[in-house]
TrEMBL record:
It comes from the Bacteria. This is MFS family permease. It is a multi-pass membrane protein. The keyword Plastid does not apply. Residues 33-449 form the Major facilitator superfamily (MFS) profile domain. SUPFAM superfamilies: MFS general substrate transporter. Pfam families: MFS_1.
Amino acid sequence: MTEAIVPEPPVAAASPSVTDALHPISTAYRRYALTLLVVVYSLNFLDRQIVNILAESIKEELHLQDWQIGMMQGLAFAIFYTTLGIPIARLAERGNRPWIIGTAIAAWSGFTMLCGLSTNFIQLVLARIGVSIGEAGCSPPSHSLIADYTPREKRSSALAIYSLGTPIGSLLGMALGGVIADLWGWRAAFLIAGAPGIVVALIAAFTLIEPRNRLKADLAARQAAGPSIMDAVRELSTKKTFWLMAFAASLLAFQGYASNAFIGSFYFRNHTAELAGLAADFGMKPKGFLGLALGLIGGTAGVFGTWFGGMLADRLGRRDLRWHVTMPAIATSIAIPFYILGIMHPSGTAALFLLTIPTLCNTMWYGPIYGSVQSLVKPETRTTAAALILFIINIIGLGGGPTFLGWLSDFMAKTGGLGVAEGLRAAMIINAFTLLGSVGLFLWARRTIREEMVS
C-alpha cells in the first residue's frame, strides 16, 4: 500500500517542551534511563502475564471454571489497575516520578509473591488486585518521563523501546513460569517472579532523574501549578484522533489479552499428546516446554514487531503523520487470517509458528500510538493523557477480553455442546473478529491526526 507524500500542515504552537528547558543530560544517561525503564516494564508484564502459563494448574488445584480464570486475569485485575491509573498520573504531574515508579514496583512485586501463598479463589483474586494496584503506577509516569527526555521526532521509537517490556516480560513469564512450575509447582513460580522487583524498585527510585528538578524557573512555576483534571479532559475532548486511537487499541487489547490468558490452556486441551511428545523429545515436561516455546517464539516476534513498528512510524511519519495510524491498520489486517488459521490448524507445531505472525503484527502499534498521544497534548498534560489512554485500553481490553473469552468458552463447551477443548477453540476464533473494528478506527483517525498534533 503506497501513501502519497502530502505536505504537513502548520502545527499549532506548543507550550515550551520540558526537554527544551532541561540542563544538558548526557546521551549515555538517557540510554541508561530508557534501559532501566524497559527492565521495569518487563517485570511489570512478567508479574502480570506469568499466570497465563500457570492457569491450567491453578484451575485444577483450586477447582475453578474458565470464567473464574478469565475474571482473575481480566476484570478483577483491570478495575483497580485502570481506576487508580488516573489519580496516580495526577500525582505524577506534580510529584517525583522516579519515587512513584519505585514504590509501584515494590508493591506489585510483593503482591505477586503473595499469589503463591493463596489457597482459594478469593485469596488469589485479592492478591491479583494488589498486583494491579502496584502496576497502575508504572506506565503513566514512565511515558511522561520518556517524553520529557525525548524530542518529538524520536518519541515513537523511544516509547516503542519502552514497550519492548511487553513481549520481553511475556516471554520471561511464560518461559520461567512453565519451567519453574514443572520443577517446584505454580506457587514457587509466583514467589520467584516477584523477588527481583524489590531490588529494581530501589535502583529506579534512586538513579532515575526527575527532569522537573532541572527546569527553568518560569517553566517550573507553570509545571508546578499544572492543569486540573478537568482542564486535561477538556483538552483531550477536542482531540478526535486520541479517542479513535484509544478505542482502536482497546479492541486490539481485548483480543490480545483474551488470547494470552487462555493460550496455554488451548494447547494443553487441544494438542495434549503432541505437546507431551515434543516435550519428551527435548527432555522436558509439557508446562516447561510450552512456556519456553511460547515465550521464545512469541517474545522474539513481539520484540521485533514493537521495535520495527516504532522505527517505521518515526521514519514514515516524517513524511506523513498519517502513517502513525495507517501502519497499525495494515499490520492488524494481516494478523487476522493468520491468527484464525493458527487456532484452527490440527498441528500444534504449525499453530505455534502461524501464531507468531499475528504476535508480530499486533505489537507494531505500541510506538506509533503511544508516541502520538504524547504529541497530541501539551507537555504538562502528557502523564494524564498516557493514564487516560491506558485506562481505556485496559478497562476494555484487559478487563473485558479475558472475562468475555472465559465466559464464551464455558458457553460453547456446555450450552454449545463442544466440550472444553473445542469450546475454547471456537471462542478464540469468534473473539478474533473484534480486530476488524480496530482496523476501521485506525483508518478513521487518518482524517484528523495531522491537524491535531501540538507538541
